[in-house]
Amino acid sequence: MAKMTMREAINQAMRLEMARDPDVILIGEDVAGGRGCPVDDGEAAGGVMGVTAGLYSEFGAARVIDTPITESAIMGAAAGAALTGLRPIAELMFADFFGVCFDQLYNQAAKFRYMFGGQHGAPMVVRTMVGAGMGAGPQHSQAIYPIFAHIPGLKVVLPSGAYDAKGLLIQAIRDNDPVMFCEHKMLYGEEEEVPEESYQLPLGKARVVREGGDVTVVALGRMVQLAAEAAATLEKDSGLSVAVIDPRTISPLDVDTILDSVEETGRVVVVDEATPICSMASEVASMIVSDGFSSLRAPIRKVTAPHTPVPASPTLEAGYPPTAAKIREAIEAVYNYR
Amino acid sequence: MNLDEPTLRHAYETMRLMRVFDETGRREFLAGKLPGFIHMYCGEEAIAAGICAELTDADYIASTHRGHGHCIAKGCTIEDMALEIFCRRDGLCRGKGGSMHIADLKKGMLGANAIVGGSAPLAVGAALKIKTRGESNVSVAFIGDGASNQGTVFEAMNLAVVLKLPAIFAYENNGYAEMTGVDYHCGSGDIAARAGAFGMPSHKVDGTDYFAVREAMAAALAHARGGKGPVSIECVAPRWYGHFEGDPQGYRTKEEIADLQETRDPLALFRERAMATSSLTEADFTAMDAAITERIEAAMAAADKAPLPEPDDLYTDVYEVYD
């Protein structure tokens, strides 16, 4: 199996789906780039991170649609097109920009199916970039997805690597409800083995990254890698057996896989890069306390970003997201709790 | 514009249905039988009727919170609409939408919309679908004068021009954005000119004149169906009632409303012109009025007695499947 970056895997998922289904279109800012410029060959950008490169040349301007900088119109156009029969992939360049267009997602697309009595939903995918690590500062670095998970009618996907990203995106495009597909910008260049052919991974099914009987770590997005690293180190150094679970989608959330592991370990660490208040980390912890209380043998520890904006200074930003060291410390703390 | 007698009859019946549906609905609302809010369309009937006259089920409209007239003009069945405003199990949206969210997708009615300015980007999306599939239909956004100031509307107009989409922006200038007058809230004072500045043909018509609205829409349809991009039409027709039912309207005089009803009643103006240009008589209109009143009374009475949603319906249709 070939190695592929998450950037390539996402690109390939879109390419496969666009080739398979003429109703799949891609709409967003600079998904091709160069429109109206002296050099307008459709390959000027391919997305600001190069994720959509080549799609314009393959599928043309009618299906790879560059827009003005106009997030409300992009999300609304995708929602309206989805309501009437297309399957748009709409790019919200940075998830931080949801503030200028969220009405079209949470009041419109997310509610169509319910508000219209089941007549039709909005089968659309919003691909959007999340996460810190580039020194991009307070308005381009947030892990804002817990807000999306709060909305009934939206599904929220957080791939932790190239293999999952491809299978989850293909599934998201075929899903008949609106899906927020949150891509961590620091994972784009990360490689994994990824099959060339099409495959789907179900939404709402967690991946058990590693089995373990002493402590359960639930980690989201880029944190999965760090959690696995911390678990491996602890196993080597102290013989601890640490389970790492990647929910892959936070809405729907695979409650059963998490609770099964907690039943065995009784000790839990939840790791997320998002801010801690009203967060997925809180949600997972609360769910375990409600539904797995009798299994618990220690207080649940949350390892998250602090409740601050994301600083631009690389020095400060380095202290913002959880690290493998912080995760390891939390695992040891819950393990040693008596 | 000369229309034959069946067309005139249909146009009048459409407007009369709107008038009686809302006035009867108002009575039921004031009797405490309808939940939530209700927004009256009286005085603006010629706009929806004129804009939708030549549309088919394959054309789309996206509506506003004041949407009953749009639904009727687009062909929604008033019996199903009555069930929905009563929030009954068998309503168009199974009671989950109510007055401000009536939608009927098989009729191309993409929903009334309780977010002011929310519908314009959605209509542009439907126009994008039309263009992507190579169809020859159009998509209409109804937009109030209040919504005309929303950024979503500006974004929708610009995107429609950039992508050359078959979208029609139908502005309903009814004089008031909630409790604020158009002379105050619209900075440039001219909605049509502002829409035109986005780079599309722009018409401004008397929205109480069915024939004027229909004529402007015919030109808009020729343009949009011809692949030349979007068009806007501003229709001026002051509303007869408040923003919502229950609005005491301290911001306007009784004389203004009486004068509107006396001199700018779209239905009366229509009758007058139709009788002058066709063989339709006063008696024909009286007969149509009586039949419509009877039909709507029956629809409201049936809705009042219709079954309520089942308690478990609360949980359905959030997602197609969520397990």
Automatic annotation (TrEMBL), chain A:
InterPro entries referenced in this protein's UniProt entry, alphabetically: THDP-binding (IPR029061), Transketo_C/PFOR_II (IPR009014), Transketolase-like_Pyr-bd (IPR005475), Transketolase_C (IPR033248)
Keyword Metal-binding in annotation: no
Listed SMART domains: Transket_pyr (SM00861)
Entries under CDD domains matching the protein: TPP_PYR_E1-PDHc-beta_like
Pfam families: Transket_pyr (PF02779), Transketolase_C (PF02780)
Superkingdom of the organism of origin: Bacteria
Function text: The branched-chain alpha-keto dehydrogenase complex catalyzes the overall conversion of alpha-keto acids to acyl-CoA and CO(2). It contains multiple copies of three enzymatic components: branched-chain alpha-keto acid decarboxylase (E1), lipoamide acyltransferase (E2) and lipoamide dehydrogenase (E3).
Protein name as catalogued: 2-oxoisovalerate dehydrogenase subunit beta
Taxonomic placement: Bacteria, Pseudomonadati, Pseudomonadota, Gammaproteobacteria, Cellvibrionales
UniProtKB/TrEMBL annotation, chain B:
InterPro entries, per database record: DH_E1 (IPR001017), PDH_E1_Alpha_Subunit (IPR050642), THDP-binding (IPR029061)
Superkingdom field: Bacteria
Stretches assigned to coiled coil: none
Keyword Kinase among UniProt keywords: no
Keyword field contains Oxidoreductase: yes
UniProt GO molecular function: pyruvate dehydrogenase (acetyl-transferring) activity
GO biological process per UniProt: pyruvate decarboxylation to acetyl-CoA
Keywords on record: Oxidoreductase, Thiamine pyrophosphate
Obligatory cofactor(s): thiamine diphosphate
Domain Dehydrogenase E1 component: 13-311
PANTHER family: PYRUVATE DEHYDROGENASE E1 COMPONENT SUBUNIT ALPHA, PYRUVATE DEHYDROGENASE E1 COMPONENT, ALPHA SUBUNIT BACTERIAL AND ORGANELLAR
Protein name as catalogued: Acetoin dehydrogenase E1 component alpha-subunit
